[in-house]
Every structure is written in structure tokens, then in C-alpha cells.
Amino acid sequence: MGDSNQKLHAIMISFPFQGHITPFVHLAIKLASKGFTITFVHTEFIHHQITKSQPHKTIEPQVFSEARKSGLDIRYTTITDGLPLEFDRSSNMKQYWDSIMQVFPTHIDEFVNNMVKSHPLSAFFLVTDTLYAWPATIAKKYNFVIVSFWTQPALIFTLYYHLDLLIKNGHFASNDNRMDTIAYIPGVKAIEPKDLTSTLQETDTTTLVHRVTFKAFEEVKKADIVICNTVEELESETISALHQKSPIYAIGPIFPPRFTKSTVGTSLRAASDCTEWLNTKPHGSVLYVAFGSLVRISEHDMAEIAHGLLLSEANFIWVLRPGTIGSDGTNILPVGFEDSIKDRGMIVPWCNQIEVLSHSAVGGFLTHCGWNSLFESIWFGVPLICFPFAYDQITNRKLVVNDWKIGINLRDEKSITRGEVGEKINLLMRGTKSDELRKEMNRVKKTLENALATDGSSEKNFKQFIKNVKELMRKRNGLSI
């Protein structure tokens, strides 16, 4: 690989879930805009889901077609995850992830081998999701530089990175985990056990999620570079401490070009258009209620949210899957609910979240606290009601409510009540508390805007990350870059 005419070529492979795919796609476009050739890899199953959701069925996600029209060198391909397309992955998650962990890497190896042979003038490097457990093996075999992309906050990365400290101090992997404040993780002043990810709060550490996480964070310590979808000013102490362990760059939030005008989505579902309805509502009067595609709300919580919306004074859009029924087969929404909300409520199966949050009528967001949703809400200055369910969502809530003070908490572990839901909706949407939240939200929004400015921290870090990749490629492969 000593040819000075070789072009830097990133092979990018995201984790096959919506919250990971979205920033990965936008990162691919940003890298391509800096002159890199990109080959973006989806599993065949994810490709099938995306193409089903697009109004015009195409052989690739529309976002890449649009990028190429702008002259970007993005190629797209698919690889089997080891299971037939018709296999029901959602109902057989263990078998699905066994295939992702054990079979999928073999197909990746075959694909990379073919890429290397068929593109002799390309100098390849890998950009893969941190949660994959195979990148270091592939990178070593082909002498690739490996970039690990962490799509969640740096706080969660460092908690997993220091699992040994949590275990040593009895806060994790114990039959009776300690419940006192954790104040020994580098770069983390203090965190309560209730604010750890759900994975770190469980006592059974033999689950599939635990196995994936443990293996991934053994592997990430072999990565050449880690990039993180966060903002340095929002997690400065954590990022600074991680720098002592590994080259890590806070380059977030990873948004698409022309973000506020973007209509080209990356969603796995077809979206409803809410604009016409929103245009009829007063400024800041609408609460947007939406939870992630993997979130499973209990019958009790669903019913209490519905009653709480009725009790509140807010207009609302509720993203609710079709056929929402209870375990006994009956509709769990209140009798006459849809008739009662005709003047002030809209129920849709899915929507373009950016279009909704950017609309002037939207003044609040009841969310599960997915990381992408939080950044989108901040960008458009929409304060939050936090209703986390599992995984990173719980720790994300801690950042929103305790650290940044741009949202209010709906629950910790206790069950929610309709009275509490209605009360907190009204608290978020109007009055003194609402004014305080909006003031803090404007401050955090300004931090994001500054980070993404030409001389902002995220842009500077992105440039340094690219420089670091080129230096490593030059040293490892003898390139004149």
C-alpha cells in the first residue's frame, strides 16, 4: 500500500437499530464532504426495512442518492446478518443477536477481503459502531486503522469503560449492589446508582445485552480512535479524563447538512405528515409525545399517559403504533378517547420528528430520552418531560434533568399516575417552571450552535480526528497523504 495516489476509503458499518443508524448515516455524509470515499454497509434486513419506509422504492436509502447528487463519493451495499429476510427478529432476539455476534463477522470478513482485492487504489479504514465485538480482529487481519463511533453520551462510555472499578467497589455485578453515591469514576464527579444505565443496575450479568456490552468494551480499547456523538462543553470533564486513556473526539451532534430544512429521512418506518394540523395551532401550544421504536410501554403506563393528556390543557401529537391493545385484546385507551381529543389532539403511527420539533407550534416533548431525540429537541429549543425506560435512556435523563436543567422527570422507578402526567405536562408548557426550562434550554442550544460553528469545538475536533486518521494511515501504510 505504498502508492501515493491511493484514496482514503472508509468502510462504515452501523449497529442495526434506528438510534445508531441515524448518526452513522449523517457521519458518512460529513466524511464524504471532506473528500473521503465511503462504502456504507447495512444488513439486508435493515435495507429491506428502510426501502419499505420510503415513498419511492429505491435500491438504496434516498439520503445517499441525494448526497451523490452533490458530488459526494458514497457507495452503498448490503450484507446478510446470517438469518433469512423473513426471520422474525423482534420475537427471537437471542437467536438474532447470536447471529450478529457469531455469523455476521464472517460475512464482514468476506466482504472486506473482496473490497481490498477489487479496489487496489483505495486505502481502507474501518468506522464501526462501538457495540460491535469484531472490528479489532478484522482491522488486525487487514492492517486497517479502526475508528470506533460511540453514538451515546461520553458519560455512558466512561461508565462502561471503567466496569472494573464498578465491580471492584461493589456497585455492579454483585448479588447485592451498593446503593451509595459513586464518586470514583475518572471524569465523573458523582452519580447515583439509580442513574446508571439499566444494564449496570441489573444483578444478572449473563444476559445477551451484558455479553454484547462486555465484549464491545474489551474491543474498544484496541481501537485507534474513538469518536463520540456529544459536545465537549456539555461533558468536558468526562471527555478530558477519557483523553488520558485513548484518542477520543467529541464531534457531535452529528446532524445532516441543512438540518432544519432536511426532508430526506433515515427512518425505518413510513412517516405521517403533521404540518397541516400543526399550522392550525398557536405558537408553543403543542406537546409532542413520542417514544423509540424499541420501547415497550406497559398497559398501565399507556392508559395513564392517555388520561393525563386528557387532564392537561395542552394540544398534542402522539406517535402511537396502530392496534394498541391490552393483553386481553381490548383497546387500552380510555373509552371515547379519540372523540374527546378531536379538537386538540392528533394520533399518528410515525412521523418525521425533525419536521415536528422544528414547527413553531411545538412547545414541549414527552420523550423516552433517546440520545438523538434529545439533541434534536435541544437544537429546536423544545424543553422535555423525561420518561426513560431502559438502557442509556436512564442516564440520559440524568444529564437532561440534573446537569443541564432543560427538562423535568416523569418517573424514576415508581408507576406513573394520570394526575402526575397531567400536572407535569401543564408545568412544562406554561408558568414559571416552563420559563426557567426555556431559559436553560436556550443556553444549551447556544452551546450546540457554537460547537458546530466553523471555529467551534466539534468542528475543530472533527478536523483533528481527520488529521489523526491520515497520520495513522501514513505511518501504517506508507501513504503520502
From TrEMBL:
PROSITE patterns xref list: UDPGT (PS00375)
Enzyme Commission number: 2.4.1.-
Keywords for the protein's UniProt record, in alphabetical order: Glycosyltransferase, Transferase
UniProt GO molecular function: hexosyltransferase activity
Top-level class of the enzyme under EC nomenclature: transferase
Protein family (similarity comment): Belongs to the UDP-glycosyltransferase family.
Protein name: Glycosyltransferase
